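Q: What does the assembled structure look like for these inputs?
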Amino acid sequence: MTKVALVGLGFMGRMHLSIYGTIENVQVTALCDVHEENMDMSRKGGGNIAVGEMKTDLSKARKFTSFKAMLAAGGFDYVDLCIPTHLHKEYAVLAMEAGYDVFCEKPMARTGEEADAMIATMKKTGKLLTIGQCLRFWPMYVKVKELLDSGKYGKVISAELARYSPSPTWSVDGWIEKGELSGSAGLDLHIHDVDMIHWWFGAPKGVTSSGVEAAGGGFGHLATIYDYPGMTVTSVGDWLCVDTFGLIMRALIVMEKAVINLDTTQSKPLTLYIPGEGKVYPELDVRDGYFFELRSFVGNVATRKAPTVVTAEAAMQSLKTALAEIKSAETHKKVAL
Ligand SMILES: NC(=O)c1ccc[n+]([C@@H]2O[C@H](COP(=O)([O-])OP(=O)(O)OC[C@H]3O[C@@H](n4cnc5c(N)ncnc54)[C@H](O)[C@@H]3O)[C@@H](O)[C@H]2O)c1
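A:
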């Protein structure tokens, strides 16, 4: 049985907690939150994705309001960090130095230097570290990767990715709306598509971005052209939508012999258009990426095998590209990578 300490019981912490109840061979043995009342699971939470039913066994979970006291008490194999982004580096480093593997939510850190420090600690301590770039485990995004890698449909001509969300007014103490702490939509929301762009097409050579500022600082809307030889890749990340809008994810990929359309507003969110065959709807697992990413890391910890789907280095690279986009939008200049 792999034992986990879950830190931060806001939107994503509650999501992880609900998932742990559906994974075999994992037990939550510690909970930590600076707000004691957030560890009360009868409380209602916020977020832009519905949290599943909370069936997780918490009978063995000790509760802590101090992270350092929790690390000193022990009784777990790894630490799952669902805390505000500006705390990721400090807490991940403390956990690894105390002898624990770490699952840390995305974005990896607030700055590139912080991500570098996390990787240095991972190497120094020999602990496992992965980041919650969950789309690498999300069935429809995984299927797109398979289609692209199959080589059956020729080269990519263009790709346009987009992610729109209402403003995230649900965060505890309002940290996410403060650009300095979260990196605003550019880092918090848009990082998912930046990570897909890296995973599907490899690293771009540079970025040219334009942004619209959010009230709390940083960009609430970011539009980017990525520099790739021989294809056009663009993206939009936006969390300035009114609260009735909901979360929308899209990716339209034009290839020589097919078009892939991922669109979560459709009842079948993934469509493949193939000459002679018309529309094809690939079969998708109904379970989500949070389930697969956490189950995968539980397996990594149990077998002592380093994560291969989301390595810390890959997450760091996506973070640095998103930061370059923010810099490009601030300076109105192309940023080389
Ligand atoms: N993978 C995804 O799809 C996804 C979705 C949403 C959020 N996230 C990420 O998850 C992280 C948390 O976001 P959220 O939306 O859950 O935020 P949130 O505000 O809803 O929850 C954060 C929780 O951390 C607690 N906390 C704050 N400081 C703490 C500390 N020093 N020690 C212990 N607990 C502390 C807060 O009390 C709160 O309960 C962020 O990095 C965010 O980017 C990922």
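Residues 135-285+319-336 form a domain with the Dihydrodipicolinate Reductase; domain 2 fold (CATH 3.30.360.10).
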